Amino acid sequence: MKSFDVVVIGAGPAGYIAAIRAAQLGLSVACIEKWKTPKGDFALGGTCLNVGCIPSKALLESSENYERVLHNFKAHGITASGVKFDLKTMLERKDRIVGKMTSGIAGLFKKNKVTWLQGHGKLLSGGTTWKIQAGEEQVEAKNIIIATGSKARHLPGIPVDNKLICDNEGALAFESVPQRLGVIGAGVIGLELGSVWRRLGSTVRVLEALPTFLGAADEAVAQEAWKIFTKGQALDIELGVKIGAVSEMRKVLSIQYNGQDGSSKTFDCDRLIISVGRVPNTEDLGAENIGLKLDPKGFIEVDKNCRTALPRVYAVGDVVRGPMLAHKGEDEGVMVAEIIAGHHGHVNYDAIPWVIYTAPEIAWVGKTEQQLKAEGIAYRTGRFPFAYNGRALGREEPEGFVKILADARTDRILGVHAIGSLASELIAEAVVAMEFGASSEDIARICHAHPSMSEVMREAALAVDKRSLNG
Length: 471
Fold this sequence. Notes:
The protein has about 475 residues and is α/β, with parallel strands linked by helices. The protein is about 35% helix and about 25% strand. The longest helix has 26 residues, at about 85-110.
Protein backbone atom coordinates (compact mmCIF):
# COMPACT_ATOMS: atom_id res chain seq x y z
CA MET A 1 0.00 0.00 0.00
CA LYS A 2 1.35 3.42 -1.01
CA SER A 3 1.90 5.87 1.82
CA PHE A 4 2.06 9.67 1.64
CA ASP A 5 2.64 12.56 4.00
CA VAL A 6 -0.46 14.24 2.59
CA VAL A 7 -3.41 12.95 0.60
CA VAL A 8 -5.75 15.56 -0.84
CA ILE A 9 -9.25 14.44 -1.81
CA GLY A 10 -10.43 16.65 -4.65
CA ALA A 11 -8.50 18.53 -7.33
CA GLY A 12 -10.52 21.71 -7.72
CA PRO A 13 -8.81 25.05 -6.97
CA ALA A 14 -8.65 24.39 -3.21
CA GLY A 15 -7.37 20.85 -3.62
CA TYR A 16 -4.83 21.15 -6.39
CA ILE A 17 -3.34 24.30 -4.89
CA ALA A 18 -3.05 22.57 -1.48
CA ALA A 19 -1.34 19.60 -3.14
CA ILE A 20 1.15 21.74 -5.04
CA ARG A 21 2.01 23.90 -2.02
CA ALA A 22 2.51 20.86 0.21
CA ALA A 23 4.80 19.32 -2.40
CA GLN A 24 6.78 22.57 -2.67
CA LEU A 25 7.39 22.30 1.07
CA GLY A 26 9.01 18.89 0.68
CA LEU A 27 6.10 16.61 1.59
CA SER A 28 5.12 13.50 -0.36
CA VAL A 29 1.68 14.24 -1.79
CA ALA A 30 -1.10 12.47 -3.64
CA CYS A 31 -4.29 14.05 -4.93
CA ILE A 32 -7.43 12.04 -5.67
CA GLU A 33 -9.83 13.24 -8.35
CA LYS A 34 -12.77 11.48 -9.98
CA TRP A 35 -13.89 14.16 -12.48
CA LYS A 36 -14.38 12.90 -16.03
CA THR A 37 -14.85 14.83 -19.25
CA PRO A 38 -17.82 14.12 -21.55
CA LYS A 39 -15.45 11.84 -23.48
CA GLY A 40 -14.80 9.77 -20.36
CA ASP A 41 -11.26 10.98 -19.66
CA PHE A 42 -10.17 11.85 -16.13
CA ALA A 43 -9.52 15.56 -15.65
CA LEU A 44 -8.21 17.83 -12.92
CA GLY A 45 -9.66 21.20 -11.91
CA GLY A 46 -13.02 20.17 -10.47
CA THR A 47 -16.20 22.13 -11.10
CA CYS A 48 -14.44 25.50 -11.36
CA LEU A 49 -12.21 24.70 -14.29
CA ASN A 50 -14.47 22.19 -16.05
CA VAL A 51 -18.02 23.54 -15.75
CA GLY A 52 -17.79 26.66 -13.61
CA CYS A 53 -15.57 29.73 -13.38
CA ILE A 54 -13.36 29.19 -16.41
CA PRO A 55 -15.86 28.10 -19.12
CA SER A 56 -18.47 30.63 -18.00
CA LYS A 57 -15.97 33.48 -18.33
CA ALA A 58 -15.03 32.27 -21.79
CA LEU A 59 -18.67 32.41 -22.91
CA LEU A 60 -19.19 35.75 -21.19
CA GLU A 61 -16.30 37.20 -23.18
CA SER A 62 -17.59 35.77 -26.46
CA SER A 63 -21.11 37.08 -25.91
CA GLU A 64 -19.83 40.50 -24.83
CA ASN A 65 -17.71 40.78 -27.98
CA TYR A 66 -20.75 39.97 -30.10
CA GLU A 67 -22.79 42.66 -28.35
CA ARG A 68 -19.98 45.19 -28.71
CA VAL A 69 -19.93 44.67 -32.47
CA LEU A 70 -23.71 45.01 -32.71
CA HIS A 71 -24.25 47.97 -30.41
CA ASN A 72 -21.12 49.60 -29.04
CA PHE A 73 -18.75 50.02 -31.96
CA LYS A 74 -20.92 52.65 -33.70
CA ALA A 75 -19.85 55.21 -31.11
CA HIS A 76 -16.25 54.58 -32.20
CA GLY A 77 -17.11 55.20 -35.84
CA ILE A 78 -17.00 51.49 -36.65
CA THR A 79 -19.94 49.98 -38.51
CA ALA A 80 -20.43 46.39 -39.53
CA SER A 81 -23.15 44.64 -41.50
CA GLY A 82 -24.24 41.02 -41.64
CA VAL A 83 -22.73 40.28 -38.24
CA LYS A 84 -23.31 36.70 -37.17
CA PHE A 85 -22.00 34.36 -34.53
CA ASP A 86 -21.25 30.66 -34.64
CA LEU A 87 -22.32 29.08 -31.36
CA LYS A 88 -20.46 25.87 -32.15
CA THR A 89 -17.21 27.81 -32.49
CA MET A 90 -17.88 29.67 -29.24
CA LEU A 91 -18.42 26.41 -27.40
CA GLU A 92 -15.35 24.82 -28.97
CA ARG A 93 -13.25 27.81 -27.91
CA LYS A 94 -14.59 27.46 -24.37
CA ASP A 95 -13.69 23.76 -24.37
CA ARG A 96 -10.17 24.45 -25.65
CA ILE A 97 -9.58 26.91 -22.82
CA VAL A 98 -10.86 24.36 -20.31
CA GLY A 99 -8.60 21.67 -21.79
CA LYS A 100 -5.57 23.95 -21.68
CA MET A 101 -6.19 24.83 -18.04
CA THR A 102 -6.84 21.28 -16.83
CA SER A 103 -3.88 19.84 -18.71
CA GLY A 104 -1.82 22.67 -17.20
CA ILE A 105 -2.63 21.37 -13.72
CA ALA A 106 -1.52 17.90 -14.77
CA GLY A 107 1.76 19.46 -15.86
CA LEU A 108 2.10 21.24 -12.52
CA PHE A 109 1.50 17.96 -10.69
CA LYS A 110 4.27 16.35 -12.70
CA LYS A 111 6.61 19.29 -12.13
CA ASN A 112 6.03 19.23 -8.36
CA LYS A 113 5.98 15.42 -8.07
CA VAL A 114 2.35 15.24 -6.93
CA THR A 115 0.86 11.79 -7.52
CA TRP A 116 -2.52 11.96 -9.26
CA LEU A 117 -4.79 9.12 -8.13
CA GLN A 118 -7.74 8.78 -10.51
CA GLY A 119 -11.13 7.79 -9.16
CA HIS A 120 -13.44 8.42 -6.23
CA GLY A 121 -11.82 9.21 -2.88
CA LYS A 122 -13.38 7.76 0.25
CA LEU A 123 -12.29 7.76 3.88
CA LEU A 124 -11.94 4.20 5.25
CA SER A 125 -10.33 4.15 8.69
CA GLY A 126 -7.93 5.92 11.02
CA GLY A 127 -5.25 5.37 13.59
CA THR A 128 -1.62 6.36 13.43
CA THR A 129 -2.25 6.80 9.70
CA TRP A 130 -5.42 7.27 7.69
CA LYS A 131 -6.58 4.77 5.07
CA ILE A 132 -8.32 6.10 1.97
CA GLN A 133 -9.89 4.45 -1.05
CA ALA A 134 -8.60 6.06 -4.21
CA GLY A 135 -10.39 4.64 -7.21
CA GLU A 136 -9.38 0.96 -7.42
CA GLU A 137 -6.58 1.15 -4.84
CA GLN A 138 -6.11 2.00 -1.20
CA VAL A 139 -3.49 4.41 0.15
CA GLU A 140 -2.27 5.60 3.54
CA ALA A 141 -1.78 9.19 4.65
CA LYS A 142 -0.30 10.91 7.68
CA ASN A 143 -2.44 13.96 6.89
CA ILE A 144 -5.66 14.37 4.92
CA ILE A 145 -6.95 17.49 3.22
CA ILE A 146 -10.58 17.20 2.12
CA ALA A 147 -11.35 19.51 -0.81
CA THR A 148 -14.31 17.83 -2.49
CA GLY A 149 -16.00 21.11 -3.42
CA SER A 150 -19.68 21.67 -4.01
CA LYS A 151 -22.43 20.84 -6.46
CA ALA A 152 -25.46 22.68 -7.74
CA ARG A 153 -28.47 22.68 -5.46
CA HIS A 154 -31.60 21.45 -7.21
CA LEU A 155 -35.21 22.18 -6.39
CA PRO A 156 -37.50 19.37 -5.22
CA GLY A 157 -39.94 18.25 -7.88
CA ILE A 158 -37.98 19.87 -10.73
CA PRO A 159 -35.68 17.20 -12.20
CA VAL A 160 -32.52 18.51 -13.87
CA ASP A 161 -31.69 16.66 -17.10
CA ASN A 162 -29.17 19.25 -18.39
CA LYS A 163 -31.03 19.33 -21.68
CA LEU A 164 -34.22 21.30 -21.11
CA ILE A 165 -33.85 21.91 -17.37
CA CYS A 166 -30.22 22.70 -16.56
CA ASP A 167 -27.89 23.63 -13.76
CA ASN A 168 -24.62 25.47 -14.43
CA GLU A 169 -23.19 22.47 -16.28
CA GLY A 170 -25.95 22.17 -18.86
CA ALA A 171 -26.31 25.95 -19.23
CA LEU A 172 -22.76 26.12 -20.59
CA ALA A 173 -23.50 23.72 -23.43
CA PHE A 174 -26.77 24.68 -25.12
CA GLU A 175 -26.62 23.38 -28.68
CA SER A 176 -28.67 26.37 -29.85
CA VAL A 177 -29.77 29.71 -28.45
CA PRO A 178 -33.16 29.33 -26.76
CA GLN A 179 -35.74 31.81 -27.91
CA ARG A 180 -37.13 32.06 -24.37
CA LEU A 181 -34.94 31.32 -21.37
CA GLY A 182 -36.06 30.99 -17.78
CA VAL A 183 -33.64 31.36 -14.89
CA ILE A 184 -34.58 30.47 -11.32
CA GLY A 185 -32.23 32.36 -9.02
CA ALA A 186 -30.82 35.89 -9.41
CA GLY A 187 -27.48 35.14 -7.81
CA VAL A 188 -24.03 35.14 -9.39
CA ILE A 189 -24.55 32.12 -11.66
CA GLY A 190 -28.06 33.10 -12.72
CA LEU A 191 -27.06 36.63 -13.67
CA GLU A 192 -23.86 35.63 -15.46
CA LEU A 193 -25.38 32.82 -17.53
CA GLY A 194 -28.62 34.67 -18.10
CA SER A 195 -26.66 37.62 -19.50
CA VAL A 196 -24.68 35.32 -21.84
CA TRP A 197 -27.78 33.98 -23.55
CA ARG A 198 -29.55 37.35 -23.56
CA ARG A 199 -26.69 38.85 -25.55
CA LEU A 200 -26.89 35.97 -28.01
CA GLY A 201 -30.60 36.54 -28.60
CA SER A 202 -32.68 34.94 -25.84
CA THR A 203 -35.56 36.66 -24.09
CA VAL A 204 -34.64 36.06 -20.45
CA ARG A 205 -36.81 36.05 -17.35
CA VAL A 206 -35.10 35.64 -13.98
CA LEU A 207 -37.22 34.49 -11.04
CA GLU A 208 -35.81 35.15 -7.56
CA ALA A 209 -37.33 33.92 -4.30
CA LEU A 210 -35.80 36.65 -2.14
CA PRO A 211 -37.57 40.01 -1.97
CA THR A 212 -34.33 41.95 -2.45
CA PHE A 213 -31.88 42.00 -5.34
CA LEU A 214 -28.24 41.04 -4.68
CA GLY A 215 -28.72 41.15 -0.93
CA ALA A 216 -25.07 40.30 -0.24
CA ALA A 217 -23.86 43.37 -2.14
CA ASP A 218 -23.82 46.94 -0.93
CA GLU A 219 -27.28 48.47 -1.36
CA ALA A 220 -26.03 51.27 -3.59
CA VAL A 221 -24.32 48.78 -5.90
CA ALA A 222 -27.38 46.53 -5.98
CA GLN A 223 -29.61 49.48 -6.89
CA GLU A 224 -27.28 50.52 -9.69
CA ALA A 225 -27.07 46.95 -10.98
CA TRP A 226 -30.86 46.62 -10.94
CA LYS A 227 -31.22 49.77 -13.03
CA ILE A 228 -28.61 48.67 -15.55
CA PHE A 229 -29.73 45.06 -15.90
CA THR A 230 -33.50 45.61 -16.04
CA LYS A 231 -33.68 48.89 -17.95
CA GLY A 232 -30.48 49.07 -19.94
CA GLN A 233 -30.12 45.37 -20.76
CA ALA A 234 -33.72 44.18 -20.74
CA LEU A 235 -33.26 41.36 -18.25
CA ASP A 236 -36.74 40.63 -16.91
CA ILE A 237 -36.14 40.02 -13.18
CA GLU A 238 -38.94 39.26 -10.74
CA LEU A 239 -38.29 39.23 -7.00
CA GLY A 240 -40.14 37.56 -4.14
CA VAL A 241 -41.58 34.76 -6.25
CA LYS A 242 -42.61 31.31 -5.12
CA ILE A 243 -42.00 28.58 -7.67
CA GLY A 244 -44.73 25.98 -8.10
CA ALA A 245 -44.78 23.27 -10.76
CA VAL A 246 -42.67 23.03 -13.89
CA SER A 247 -44.27 21.00 -16.66
CA GLU A 248 -43.15 20.06 -20.15
CA MET A 249 -45.16 19.64 -23.32
CA ARG A 250 -43.55 19.24 -26.73
CA LYS A 251 -40.21 20.58 -25.52
CA VAL A 252 -41.79 23.72 -24.07
CA LEU A 253 -41.47 24.25 -20.33
CA SER A 254 -44.26 25.93 -18.40
CA ILE A 255 -43.31 27.46 -15.03
CA GLN A 256 -46.11 28.07 -12.55
CA TYR A 257 -45.25 30.59 -9.82
CA ASN A 258 -46.71 33.20 -7.51
CA GLY A 259 -45.53 36.78 -7.78
CA GLN A 260 -44.48 38.98 -4.89
CA ASP A 261 -48.08 40.20 -4.59
CA GLY A 262 -49.37 36.62 -4.37
CA SER A 263 -50.79 36.56 -7.89
CA SER A 264 -50.59 33.33 -9.90
CA LYS A 265 -48.40 33.54 -12.98
CA THR A 266 -47.12 31.34 -15.80
CA PHE A 267 -44.00 31.66 -17.91
CA ASP A 268 -43.31 29.44 -20.91
CA CYS A 269 -39.74 28.93 -22.03
CA ASP A 270 -37.59 26.70 -24.20
CA ARG A 271 -34.84 26.17 -21.61
CA LEU A 272 -34.67 26.60 -17.85
CA ILE A 273 -31.59 27.23 -15.72
CA ILE A 274 -31.76 26.33 -12.03
CA SER A 275 -29.27 28.50 -10.13
CA VAL A 276 -30.38 28.46 -6.50
CA GLY A 277 -27.02 28.03 -4.82
CA ARG A 278 -24.68 25.16 -4.16
CA VAL A 279 -24.33 22.45 -1.52
CA PRO A 280 -21.15 20.82 -0.13
CA ASN A 281 -20.11 17.68 -1.96
CA THR A 282 -19.75 15.35 1.04
CA GLU A 283 -21.94 12.46 -0.06
CA ASP A 284 -20.17 9.09 -0.08
CA LEU A 285 -17.08 10.67 1.43
CA GLY A 286 -16.95 8.06 4.19
CA ALA A 287 -17.13 10.65 6.95
CA GLU A 288 -19.00 8.20 9.17
CA ASN A 289 -16.19 5.65 8.82
CA ILE A 290 -13.75 7.83 10.75
CA GLY A 291 -16.15 9.89 12.88
CA LEU A 292 -15.78 13.09 10.87
CA LYS A 293 -18.45 15.57 11.94
CA LEU A 294 -20.74 17.24 9.41
CA ASP A 295 -23.25 19.96 10.22
CA PRO A 296 -26.95 19.61 9.26
CA LYS A 297 -26.29 21.13 5.83
CA GLY A 298 -23.45 18.72 5.05
CA PHE A 299 -20.54 21.09 5.67
CA ILE A 300 -17.46 19.76 7.45
CA GLU A 301 -16.92 21.49 10.79
CA VAL A 302 -13.51 23.15 11.10
CA ASP A 303 -11.75 25.78 13.17
CA LYS A 304 -10.23 29.04 11.89
CA ASN A 305 -7.25 27.10 10.48
CA CYS A 306 -9.47 24.55 8.71
CA ARG A 307 -8.67 21.78 11.20
CA THR A 308 -11.41 19.26 11.87
CA ALA A 309 -11.89 17.68 15.31
CA LEU A 310 -9.85 14.70 14.10
CA PRO A 311 -6.04 14.77 14.31
CA ARG A 312 -4.26 15.60 11.05
CA VAL A 313 -7.53 15.88 9.08
CA TYR A 314 -8.28 19.22 7.42
CA ALA A 315 -11.00 20.48 5.08
CA VAL A 316 -10.88 23.48 2.74
CA GLY A 317 -12.93 25.27 0.11
CA ASP A 318 -16.62 24.83 -0.54
CA VAL A 319 -17.03 21.97 1.96
CA VAL A 320 -16.41 24.31 4.93
CA ARG A 321 -17.94 27.52 6.29
CA GLY A 322 -17.56 30.78 4.47
CA PRO A 323 -18.18 31.96 0.92
CA MET A 324 -18.02 29.41 -1.89
CA LEU A 325 -15.30 31.21 -3.81
CA ALA A 326 -12.46 29.50 -5.64
CA HIS A 327 -9.85 31.98 -4.41
CA LYS A 328 -10.99 31.58 -0.81
CA GLY A 329 -10.47 27.82 -1.21
CA GLU A 330 -7.04 28.35 -2.77
CA ASP A 331 -5.89 30.48 0.16
CA GLU A 332 -7.18 27.88 2.60
CA GLY A 333 -5.32 25.18 0.69
CA VAL A 334 -2.07 27.12 0.97
CA MET A 335 -2.67 27.80 4.67
CA VAL A 336 -3.30 24.14 5.51
CA ALA A 337 -0.31 22.90 3.50
CA GLU A 338 1.93 25.34 5.33
CA ILE A 339 0.54 24.38 8.74
CA ILE A 340 1.12 20.68 8.01
CA ALA A 341 4.71 21.51 7.03
CA GLY A 342 5.26 23.34 10.31
CA HIS A 343 4.86 26.89 9.02
CA HIS A 344 2.40 29.56 10.08
CA GLY A 345 -0.32 29.59 7.44
CA HIS A 346 -3.02 32.24 7.65
CA VAL A 347 -6.11 33.47 5.79
CA ASN A 348 -7.59 36.92 6.36
CA TYR A 349 -11.27 36.25 5.81
CA ASP A 350 -12.04 39.98 6.04
CA ALA A 351 -10.06 40.66 2.86
CA ILE A 352 -11.51 38.14 0.42
CA PRO A 353 -12.93 39.81 -2.70
CA TRP A 354 -16.26 38.95 -4.32
CA VAL A 355 -16.84 39.34 -8.07
CA ILE A 356 -19.85 39.00 -10.33
CA TYR A 357 -18.70 38.89 -13.97
CA THR A 358 -21.68 40.58 -15.53
CA ALA A 359 -21.29 43.64 -17.76
CA PRO A 360 -20.64 45.89 -15.98
CA GLU A 361 -18.77 43.83 -13.43
CA ILE A 362 -19.55 43.96 -9.72
CA ALA A 363 -16.83 43.53 -7.10
CA TRP A 364 -16.40 44.22 -3.43
CA VAL A 365 -14.30 43.46 -0.38
CA GLY A 366 -15.01 44.03 3.29
CA LYS A 367 -18.17 45.38 4.90
CA THR A 368 -21.23 46.76 3.14
CA GLU A 369 -22.84 49.97 4.30
CA GLN A 370 -25.86 48.07 5.61
CA GLN A 371 -23.56 45.82 7.66
CA LEU A 372 -21.83 48.79 9.23
CA LYS A 373 -25.16 50.34 10.15
CA ALA A 374 -26.39 47.09 11.67
CA GLU A 375 -23.19 46.76 13.71
CA GLY A 376 -23.33 50.36 14.89
CA ILE A 377 -19.94 51.25 13.42
CA ALA A 378 -19.39 54.94 12.67
CA TYR A 379 -18.06 55.42 9.14
CA ARG A 380 -17.52 57.89 6.33
CA THR A 381 -18.31 57.30 2.68
CA GLY A 382 -16.58 58.30 -0.53
CA ARG A 383 -18.05 57.61 -3.96
CA PHE A 384 -16.97 58.51 -7.48
CA PRO A 385 -18.57 57.63 -10.86
CA PHE A 386 -16.84 56.19 -13.90
CA ALA A 387 -18.79 58.75 -15.96
CA TYR A 388 -16.20 61.40 -14.95
CA ASN A 389 -13.22 59.22 -15.87
CA GLY A 390 -11.48 59.83 -19.18
CA ARG A 391 -10.40 56.23 -19.71
CA ALA A 392 -13.92 54.94 -19.03
CA LEU A 393 -15.34 57.42 -21.53
CA GLY A 394 -12.69 56.43 -24.07
CA ARG A 395 -13.71 52.82 -23.63
CA GLU A 396 -17.38 53.80 -24.00
CA GLU A 397 -18.00 52.22 -20.59
CA PRO A 398 -19.09 55.06 -18.28
CA GLU A 399 -21.53 53.08 -16.13
CA GLY A 400 -21.09 52.54 -12.41
CA PHE A 401 -18.94 53.86 -9.60
CA VAL A 402 -16.47 53.01 -6.82
CA LYS A 403 -17.52 53.45 -3.20
CA ILE A 404 -15.18 53.39 -0.20
CA LEU A 405 -16.27 53.00 3.42
CA ALA A 406 -13.79 54.15 6.07
CA ASP A 407 -13.85 54.18 9.86
CA ALA A 408 -15.05 57.60 11.03
CA ARG A 409 -12.36 57.84 13.73
CA THR A 410 -9.29 56.07 12.32
CA ASP A 411 -10.00 56.37 8.56
CA ARG A 412 -9.09 52.69 8.17
CA ILE A 413 -10.79 51.19 5.13
CA LEU A 414 -13.69 48.94 6.12
CA GLY A 415 -15.08 48.09 2.69
CA VAL A 416 -14.75 48.90 -1.01
CA HIS A 417 -17.53 48.35 -3.54
CA ALA A 418 -17.43 48.78 -7.30
CA ILE A 419 -19.74 48.35 -10.24
CA GLY A 420 -18.22 49.08 -13.62
CA SER A 421 -15.93 47.86 -16.35
CA LEU A 422 -12.90 45.94 -15.05
CA ALA A 423 -14.19 46.05 -11.46
CA SER A 424 -12.77 42.54 -11.00
CA GLU A 425 -9.28 43.92 -11.64
CA LEU A 426 -9.69 47.22 -9.78
CA ILE A 427 -10.78 45.51 -6.58
CA ALA A 428 -7.29 44.05 -6.16
CA GLU A 429 -5.98 47.44 -5.06
CA ALA A 430 -8.64 47.55 -2.36
CA VAL A 431 -7.75 44.04 -1.19
CA VAL A 432 -4.09 45.00 -0.84
CA ALA A 433 -5.05 48.16 1.03
CA MET A 434 -7.26 46.29 3.49
CA GLU A 435 -4.73 43.50 3.98
CA PHE A 436 -2.18 46.07 5.11
CA GLY A 437 -4.65 48.10 7.20
CA ALA A 438 -4.56 51.13 4.93
CA SER A 439 -6.65 54.25 5.37
CA SER A 440 -8.63 56.01 2.66
CA GLU A 441 -6.01 58.76 2.89
CA ASP A 442 -3.34 56.22 1.93
CA ILE A 443 -5.11 55.45 -1.35
CA ALA A 444 -5.82 59.16 -1.88
CA ARG A 445 -2.07 59.92 -1.58
CA ILE A 446 -0.91 57.15 -3.95
CA CYS A 447 -0.13 58.28 -7.49
CA HIS A 448 -2.41 56.54 -9.99
CA ALA A 449 -1.61 56.41 -13.71
CA HIS A 450 -3.50 58.86 -15.93
CA PRO A 451 -5.63 58.13 -17.79
CA SER A 452 -6.68 54.88 -16.16
CA MET A 453 -9.77 53.29 -14.68
CA SER A 454 -7.91 53.03 -11.39
CA GLU A 455 -8.15 56.79 -10.93
CA VAL A 456 -11.77 56.27 -9.88
CA MET A 457 -10.49 54.34 -6.85
CA ARG A 458 -8.33 57.32 -5.87
CA GLU A 459 -11.15 59.79 -6.43
CA ALA A 460 -13.46 57.71 -4.26
CA ALA A 461 -10.81 57.75 -1.53
CA LEU A 462 -10.53 61.52 -1.85
CA ALA A 463 -14.32 61.74 -1.65
CA VAL A 464 -14.23 60.17 1.83
CA ASP A 465 -12.78 63.51 2.92
CA LYS A 466 -15.00 65.42 0.47
CA ARG A 467 -12.12 66.56 -1.71
CA SER A 468 -12.48 64.76 -5.03
CA LEU A 469 -10.46 66.58 -7.65
CA ASN A 470 -12.36 65.66 -10.79
CA GLY A 471 -15.98 65.67 -9.74
